[in-house]
Amino acid sequence: MVKRDGEGLEIDLLVVNDKDTVAIECKSNLSIDDVNEHLERLEKIKRLIPRYKDNRILGAVAGMVIPANVAGYAIRKGLYVMGQNGEQLELQNDASFKAKVW
User: Which of 17, 44, 81, 85 could cross-link 90 (Cys pair, CB 3.0–4.6 Å)?
Assistant: First the structure.
């Protein structure tokens, strides 16, 4: 949880290297509302966490249950989608996917 200028930001998982930052929202049952809330978070990261202002910000959602329409929506919005497949998580984006950069 980050608080700055009276505004807060909570990210489930933040993966960072020298030039990229991936903010991941994790849910047991992912919904379109969850995707929209995460998109709003992604818009705030550089402003509320200035340490990453020079990084490329990418977004991802992960869930145990992800309805096909929700996965498709998240992918169209430029997010990586990680869903459960048996005992493992798998990336649901195809090879032609282009992630949105914030």
Answer: 85
